[in-house]
């Protein structure tokens, strides 16, 4: 219970946690981009683009989706007056679906 002198907790900790989770998600996505070594030994740029292009396109689309979700999350947190237990649970739900 909060007394009249205590302020309810802000949403800064939730935003910081989400930023960390997103950083880990993007790191994992980058680590999944594996360059095909045998294509480079052939010395043809077209073969590299043909092999690596679809993976790069999927990465770019996934990055944009996560960026949109992160920006929307920050806008929502700025609108929330303070952190509540239900806000923590909804945030955990969002993190699950983002990951």
A few lines on this structure:
The chain is mostly helical and 99 residues long. It has four helices and no strands.
Determine the number of helices (DSSP H or I, runs of at least 4 residues).
4
Uncertain stretches of 5 or more adjacent residues: none
Strand tally: 0
Distance between the termini: 33 Å
Q: What is the residue-averaged pLDDT?
A: 87
Summarize the amount of helix as a percent range.
over 70%
**Structural class by secondary-structure content:** mainly alpha
Main sheet characteristics: none
**Backbone shape:** rod-shaped
Report the order of strands and helices. HHHH
Assess the beta-strand content as a share of residues: under 5%
Provide the gyration radius in Å: 20 Å
How is this structure best described in words?
The radius of gyration is 20 Å and the shape is rod-shaped. The longest helix is centred in the middle third of the chain and has 35 residues, at 45-79. The mean pLDDT is 87. The two termini are 33 Å apart. It is mostly helical and 99 residues long. Helix 1 (12-31) packs antiparallel against helix 3 (45-79) and helix 1 (12-31) packs parallel to helix 4. It has helices spanning 12-31, 37-42, 45-79, 85-98. Helix content is 76%, strand content 0%.
SSE blueprint:
Elements: H1 12-31, H2 37-42, H3 45-79, H4 85-98
Helix pairs in contact: 1-3, 1-4
